[in-house]
Amino acid sequence: MRERYIEQVFEYGGVMSVPGATILHADLDAFYASVEQLLDPALRGRPVAVGGGPNGGVVLAASYEAKAYGVQGGMPGWRAARLCPELVFVRGHFREYQRLGDAVMDVLADVTPEVERISIDEAFLDVSGATHLFGPPAAIGARIREQVRAEVGLPISVGAARTKHLAKIASQVAKPDGLVVVAPGHERVFLDPLPVGLIWGVGPVNEQRLADLGIRTIGELARTPSSAVEHVLGLAVGHKLSAMAHDEDPRRVVTTRHARSVGAQSALSRRAPDRDDVRAVLAHLADRVSRRLRAKGRAGRTVTVAVRLAGMQRSTRSRTLSVPVAATLTLTEVSEQLAWSAIEAAAPCEITLLGISVSQLADQRSVQLELDLEPPDPWRPGSAPGAARSAVDASMDAIRTRFGGDAVGYLPVVLRGDGAVPDEFRELAEHDL
DNA sequence: TCTGGGGTCCTAGGACCC
DNA sequence: TCTGGGGTCCTAGGACCC
Question: Most buried of A22, A205, A344, A402, CB within 10 angstroms?
Answer without folding.
Answer: A22
